[in-house]
């Protein structure tokens, strides 16, 4: 079922959402300072292309300890991310969620867009896990 959901997602807007994440990653990678954000963008870009059967989790919950992305530097990075580009990605996912929620069939897609909108606000320190 997750394969069917991913194929429908990809064809009905997931490709464009993923491309937005990759574009943000390329923009961030243009400077050396933006490389941590670029990594997060490419990670979430892959997640955006095929979200069903995967879960986005905080790395702190996964490892049980802080690292560069989940500590103070990660917080500062997420604040800068939000100001620079995060809010635009979040708005794009919210608009897509509203468009998908119009029909009953689109509700699972709307839920995925809402998850991605939240991830758009603070992507640094996240990991994608496969669900069984």
Walkthrough of the structure:
The chain has 132 residues and is mainly alpha-helical. The mean pLDDT is 88. The chain has one domain (2-130). The longest helix has 29 residues, at 72-100. The protein has a two-stranded antiparallel ribbon. The protein is built from five helices and two strands. Helix 1 (2-29) runs antiparallel to helix 2 (35-49). The chain has helices spanning 2-29, 35-49, 59-63, 72-100, 107-121; strands spanning 54-58, 126-130. Helices cover 70% and strands 8% of the residues. The protein starts with a helix and ends with a strand.
Average pLDDT reading: 88
Shape: globular
Distance between the termini: 12 Å
Structural class label: mainly alpha
Q: What Rg, in angstroms, do the CA atoms define?
A: 15 Å
Tell me the strand percentage band: 5-15%
- Total individual domains: 1
Q: Describe the largest sheet.
A: 2 strands, antiparallel
* Total of DSSP H or I helical runs spanning 4+ residues: 5
Helix content: 55-70%
H/E order of the elements? Answer: HHEHHHE
Can you count the beta strands? 2
Question: Can you tell me the residue ranges where pLDDT is under 50 for at least 5 consecutive residues?
Answer: none
Cross-sheet strand order for the largest sheet: 1-2
Secondary-structure map:
Blueprint: H1 2-29, H2 35-49, E1 54-58, H3 59-63, H4 72-100, H5 107-121, E2 126-130
Antiparallel strand pairs: 1-2
Helix pairs in contact: 1-2, 1-4, 4-5
Compact overview of the structure:
This protein is mainly α and 132 residues long.
Key descriptive features of the protein:
132 residues, two-stranded antiparallel ribbon, globular, 8% strand, mainly alpha
């Amino acid at each position: 079922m997750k394969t069917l959901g991913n194929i429908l997602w990809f064809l009905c807007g997931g490709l464009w959402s993923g491309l937005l994440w990759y574009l943000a990653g390329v923009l961030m990678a243009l400077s050396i300072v933006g490389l941590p954000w670029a990594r997060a963008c490419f990670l979430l870009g892959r997640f955006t292309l095929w979200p069903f059967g995967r879960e986005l989790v905080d790395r702190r919950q996964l490892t049980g300890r802080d690292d560069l992305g989940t500590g103070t530097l990660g917080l500062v990075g997420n604040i800068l991310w939000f100001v620079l580009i995060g809010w635009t990605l979040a708005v794009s996912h919210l608009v897509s969620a509203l468009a998908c929620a119009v029909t009953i069939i689109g509700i699972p897609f709307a839920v995925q867009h809402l998850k991605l909108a939240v991830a758009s606000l603070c992507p640094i320190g996240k990991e994608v896990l496969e669900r069984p």
